[in-house]
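Quick entry, no commentary yet.
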Amino acid sequence: MSILALMGIAALVGADSIKKDYTMKQKCKTMHDQGAFRPTDYQRFHMIHSDMFNDWYLGERKFYPKEYEAYFERNDKARADYTGCLTSQQEAKEGLRPVLAMTFNRFTYDPFEGFHYNYDNYIKIFNETGRLYF
C-alpha cells in the first residue's frame, strides 16, 4: 500500500514538474517576443544621450518641441527627464533594450509616458500663465 502511495506521489510530482517547465518556457518565449532579452549597450546609451544633450546646448534643439523650450530653460530636471526619454526612444529604434527602462515590451513601450504624466499639466500652466511649477 505504501509503495502505491509513493508511486502516486512521484507521478504527481513529475506531472507538476512538467507543467511548471512548460509554463516557464511559454513565459520566456513571450518575453523574448516582446524584446525583454534585447541587449543593452551602455556605450551607445552615453553616445545618444550626449548627442541629445549637445542638441539642446548647442542651440539646434531639433529634438525638443517648441512649446516645451521656455519651460525647459527654467526647469533643468524636466529637460533632463525629456532628454532621457529621447535617448530611450532612439535605443528602442536601434533594436536595443533602453538602459533607463525598468521593464520593456517592444509592442507597448512608450518612453514619454512618465514624462507626460509628470509634466504636461505644468507645461500647459506655464505656457498659459507664466507660473512655474516643478
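second:
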Amino acid sequence: MILRWSGRRRFLPLFLRIANGAIPETSEENAAYEATLSLAPFLNDSRAARRTVLRHASDPSSDRARRAAILTLATANSPWSRRVLERMHGRDDEATGFVRNALAHRPCRPGTIFVEWFGIEGQNYSKCEPPPDFR
C-alpha cells in the first residue's frame, strides 16, 4: 500500500504483474486488490493499466474484482474512466457513494487522482490532487 501512495511510474510494472497475477479477492489487504487500486494514476497513459482494470470490472465471478476496478476508475476520475463508469450497470453498493462523489466533481487532470475527504460537520473537501508521497 505504501508503494501505491507514491504514484511513481517506476512501480507500474510491479502493480500490473500483481494485479494480473490473481483475482482481487477476500479483503482489501489482498495484494491483487491493492495493486488494482494502485493503477488509478496510470489510467490516462497506460493501455496495460486500462486493460487490467476493464478485465476486473467485467469479471462475472468476483464482486471484489469489480469493486476494485470501480474504485480505481473513480479514483482516476479521468474523462476515459468517467465514460466507463457511466456505462457500467450494477455498480457495487459500497462504492456507489464514492463514485457519485467523484462524478460530481470535474475530471482530474493527468498527474492527479480524486481524493475523498469530509470534514467533521460533513463539509466535502474532496478534490483532485497528486497522489500523496509519504517518502
